[in-house]
Amino acid sequence: MTNLTQGQAAIRAAAPTVKLLIGGKFVESTTTEWREVINPATQEVLARVPFATVAEVDAAVAAGKEAFKTWRKTAIGTRARIFLKYQQLIRENMKELAAILTAEQGKTLADAEGDIFRGLEVVEHAAGIGNLQLGELANNVAGGVDTYTVLQPLGVCAGITPFNFPAMIPLWMFPMAIATGNTFLLKPSEQDPMVTMRLVELALEAGIPPGVLNVVHGGETVVNAICDHPDIKAVSFVGSTRVGTHVYNRATLAGKRAQCMMGAKNHAIVLPDANKEQTLNNLAGAAFGAAGQRCMALSVVIMVGEAQNWIPELVAKAKTLKISAGVEAGTDVGPLISCAARERVDSLIAQGASDGAKLELDGRNPAVAGYEKGNFVGPTVFSGVKPGMAVYDHEVFGPVLALMSAATLDEAIEMINANPNGNGTALFTQSGAAARRFQEDIDVGQVGINVPIPVPVPMFSFTGSRASKLGDLGPYGKQVVMFYTQTKTITERWFDDSTVSTGVNTTITLK
């Protein structure tokens, strides 16, 4: 710790340490490498998180491997009842969870509750595993022969989660993996692991047995250890394209299943016939909510025809949003996760202006009373944006909205399809014909019609596509049951004493 006063050093040394979970016990890491968990609105040190050793990763995997021997044979109804209890505990502790999340991540308390609730929906879905993990049966496919399938768990699975949804995305991962009979190793973001660990505590309280859920913290060394470990059968990842590509390549090379949800550049098209007030409200909320730190944030809007005249009104909407700490009443835009994130966003805004985009609203260096040390960037709007500009080519991951123009819907669709990413897109219109053409012709995995952030509910799956995703199966819904299970096909015939032998059969068919 350099450049700290004695008092600051003492405060940081006294910060609580985040524990590992190995074999049902919360344990102190033996590592010498630690990171501070910082409140992004105040720079207060909330905790210290360890970067686990490779030996600790090995111990966590070994605990999961041992627990799998019995957990895989646990009755499906028993597994389901654990998640019924778990969803109840999450509901009962919602306010506490949201307060922890806001303190370490920065989003508003209301948005923090939304983060937790969207994860809670997946927990509720996991409680229905008895109906989700069903095989198939074909009776009498040949003379006295039946064929059926069972969906069996894989073993130890692992998840690597990002800072921007420290409740929702862990809850995407371990409940479905565990409900299907696997054991799980979770590596939360080292930037905001505290709410994740509280959710883990509640999961154990709900009845998840020792070793079925394990947690390690860390950076590149731990990620690589997860990708390489021979006893880990599948890896789920949400985060940046750079890290996700590395995880996918390394994990699959090691023979694992992998699903990686990665970067995005989400576009919306606004047609002139759209409901103006509703559309402008939706655009502002989707672009600037969570300070733009969502993989499904709306970062590009293509205004078609006369809708380009709405830009001043959209800027006016953005100016009404309150910038402050997430704990303050009425806050719309909280801080970015770190000083480095703020500096990166500020730099991209400066680059956008020098690239020739028109800076309609500059959110840099906002005055936030009482939180002068916070990592704040206010809503920022560019118009006249084109491919090749920094604010278009990069995922800004901040409250920055790029406005583009097109003469027709077809031209706008071509612009979106030319972008390599395919996480989400939306169309605002009152024309059913336009909506039909858009959903048919757009090459993006998740489509909203008058819905700016089209993330599906858990009975469906998250279906980002192209450069936004590696792996065939999504992280929840029906697809994730297939991801976390192996289909085994059994073909059987039973003989009784009355069966007459027909002699040796050397053909390939069953008779």
TrEMBL record:
One of its GO terms (molecular function) is methylmalonate-semialdehyde dehydrogenase (acylating, NAD) activity. Belongs to the aldehyde dehydrogenase family. Keywords: NAD, Oxidoreductase. Residues 26-490 form the Aldehyde dehydrogenase domain. Its EC number is 1.2.1.27. It is an enzyme of class 1 (oxidoreductase). This is methylmalonate-semialdehyde dehydrogenase (CoA acylating). Pfam families: Aldedh. It comes from the Bacteria. One of its GO terms (biological process) is thymine catabolic process.
